[in-house]
Amino acid sequence: xxxxTYSGVWDEQVASHLLRRTMFGPTFQQIKYATQQGxxxxxxxxxxxxxxxxxxxxxxxxxxVSQGQTWVDSPFPVSNPQxxxxxxxxxxxxxxxxxxSNESLSIHEKMTLFWQNHFAVEESNxxxxxxxxxxxxxxxxxxxxxxxxxxxxxxxxxLQFLNGNSNTxxxxxxxxxxxxxxxxxIGKGEQVGEGDYTNYTESDIKEGAxxxxxxxIDGVQSSISTKVNATFIASKHDTTTxxxxxxxxxxxxxxxxxxxxxxxxxxxxxxxxxxxxxxKKLYRWFVNYAITPVVQLxxxxxxxxxxxxxxxELKPVIKALLSSSHFYAITNRGTIIKNPIExxxxxxxxxxxxxxxxxxxxxxxxxxxxxxxxxMGMNYFRPPNVGGWPAYYQAPNYTRLxxxxxxxxxxxxxxxxxxxxxxxxxxxxxxxxxxxxxxxFIQGLSSPSDPVxxxxxxxxxxxxxxxxxxxKTKLRFILTNGLPDFEWTxxxxxxxxxxxxISMKKALMTxxxxxxxxxxxxxxxxxx
Amino acid sequence: xxxxxxxxxxxLASLTIPFMFKNYSYAAITEPLFNLxxxxxxxxxxxxxxxxxxxxxxTVIPMDAYANLYKQRTxxxxxxxxxxxxxxxNAFHPAMTGMANLLQKGKLSVIQNVGYPTQNRSHFRSTxxxxxxxxxxxxxxxxxxxxxxNDFPGFPxxxxxxxxxDPFAISMGYEVSATCQGVLGNFSHTVNNxxxxxxxxxxxxxxxxxxxxxxxxxxxxxxxxxxxxxxxxLEAAKKGKxxxxxxDIKNQIARQLKYVAQMISGGLKTNVYVVNVSGFxxxxxxxxxxxxxxxxxxxxxxxxSDAIEAFQDDLNLLGLDKxxxxxxxxxxxxxxxxxxxxxxxxxxxxxLFLFGSCLETPIYGSNPVxxxxxxxxxxxxxxxxxxxxxxxxxxxxxxxxPIDIQKMFAHEIKFHRIIGGCTLRMDEVAEDGTLTLLxxxxxxxxxxxxxxxxxxxxxxxxxxLLGQEQQNxxxxxxxxxxxxxxxxFSDLPAGNYVLRIQKNSGEEKVNFVKLNx
Lengths: 528, 517
Prior knowledge:
Structural class of chain A: mainly alpha
Largest interface: A-B, 58 and 43 residues
Shape of chain B: globular
Number of helices of chain A: 23
Distance between the termini of chain A: 28 Å
Helix content of chain B: 25-40%
Number of strands of chain A: 6
Number of helices of chain B: 13
Oligomer: heterodimer
Strand content of chain B: 15-25%
Order of helices and strands of chain A: HHHHHHHHHHEEEEHHHHHHHHEEHHHHH
Helix content of chain A: 40-55%
Distance between the termini of chain B: 21 Å
């Protein structure tokens, strides 16, 4: 059994489906390009991870590093380190969303958010640890799942968050041990007896905690150390032999000191459970929430086989999934409701709009956008719990959880602010405001002077299953203010001839803004 | 509109208004009471946007220039004998029988040659100018939006709420009105059909049983539930009614105005309604070659004219006519000379119409001067600045203070006396020189009594026409000044009454009509 490769027609609709699922907001040009390149080429391109940049100092509260430089390897000041910590967190907030805004034609940002949901940690009280945790996720976004679990296990941020830091032989702490099994690797099966979760038991959590003892972090907010380190302290490690349950093959873990955790994880990855767990999560992230028996048999199981065959390398599996006829099936289009970050950055990225200011103002705008996502239910830095956002595990609602009356109000408000006003203002410099670059956006469409084509292009970019003719007509009416189509053409062409005519530009912006605002409030737009 | 500000800022907000002054010393509440303008709160403005640029010269024809017009637009000129004369010097397009009737009854005004300096003939730019009320390209707020913003800075944060449950403005259709754009939010709420008011999305997606279809249904449902204003509109639609038989439901404008009347009569506290009419961009086939009184423009004017007549008839029958005023506007007029396609191209100034029961004059402004030579591309020069029309409506209809109004506009405002004939202007005395005024009158529930006193004891009470005291409204010491007393008449049965103001400096009586609430 294998995932059947898609061999149907490769047109804009199909190509845009691929891009909407693998990016936050493909542009019209990217959709055209992907259509021309063909499926295989474009998937290969999507699976290349571009180099990442570094977060920069943007606040004068930073006491060690000067503005515009990076702080990720710099110690904290001796006095009042918290101010510097706050400044560095501000920088991280801007950096995270700038990365999403600057996504290239790559799956990178979408996968990074996938891992932030999977290995959900709250921000550390040392921004350097937070940064290196995110960097780990970014660098391994398409890496080896088993390796990533190992790296995460001794990552300072994770050690801090799930108390690995205080897990010692005399005072074992089960927190990470439990989540490693339940949420990060093999997943919790059905409870079939007392303390027996099919895939593992309570005693495995206890034994696992012992295995993981001895790891400590140091350097938090240190004025000397350039980073937060995780070190193995042999004297804190439980050197006894650990006996795993029958659910884990009655394996015996002998003392392995600083390698013992890795040996343990190797055991966890000996069965298909970890592969099943992560493949289902990938499926829910990229395809659909519903895993029916047929999907299990024809999609998940083949993914699991592939992942095992490639020794937990993720890229071949994701490639196979994105190339499968199942992925492109019409029944799997528009099945995911956008999370708040996908919502906001589909507005920005698909219109080709980037915050046009330089540091520190750009970071300020990006962090404000992140703040808006937080009030819409998705705080990037603080997932609601270690299981990540419920939209990706909680049946039966799944991504419907992103939608309620308050969230819809906010979704509509951010749409109106970004399309109809120039009042989204920098907190750093109140004279600087920003809105979606409406004119540059339509100029990038296939034939912006033709209102019929323009609305067709909008439907292609923003609506996974397009729009009915009736809805398109209503949108076109908004665009033209009810005038005959040729008047739009005349006005647009006039502007193109006189691009310095600001009043003409503003007038077109009003029409495009009203049109996009209506589009952004459609149910169709809320899905990918 | 200012009452809302008062309630928002005052501890009195939690109190019910009727008779509260019986238990309070007047001095303590005299300040806030002066801001309590129930009648203003109830005022409604209906904007009808004639999108595309209406040909004013074939709408209101300057008869003193007919001969010259004939030279300039021979192929589209309306025959003199078909026109509807409205004054000795003006006539209406033959399709405008409804509006001509209204004008004869004093319920329609023509404001001549409205425009702005240095006309921009781009549809979209000029629409921006008209909707923003500003020639500055940097202004992104609408003229009504700025007025709302003065009272409710921070909108939409915190709205709707317990005090302000209703939309401030309603835009008929699927598009918010740029006239109501505030700093962050747009004060207009879209309503396509008030009887289906929760449904504002132009989406036509259906639940076809797929995952996507179920999402569409789910999203549409939540979006509708989110639509708190929609719930209020729906309630008003259920309570509201129409009484006029004149609406032609095949006429889309009539249908929309019928909805507007229904919402107002249903008790919605919305101050502004916006209706859009398209098709006025008559570059060709404005008239039929065979008969210039027929064609696209005639059809449009008839639709608008019939609809306004029916709407006004409905308002009269519903007893709402003194609360509601209307205005048409279009982004520009058209050129004086016609083109060879039996049409006209983008021009400059044009007449606009006001309608309602509280107007000042049938024709305001002078007729345009038309050259006897064909003047290609010439439009009608502007005489009255549209921003001054707006300002006059804000002052004399919504009773916004002239100082606040001036802050909303970049140019130096000149007020025109065009509307507000049912009540005294806030800065004027009555024709007979007295200040005493009860408004509105007839009264549905509440009204305001404006009167002047010395330092003296005053009693205000309602008497029947036979001289029997019906209800005591106010008793107490007042200081020497002009007072505006809010009065609650909700307990009074419908009928004719006298309001008696007893005081040492001279008794006064005001006759009034109480309507069925």
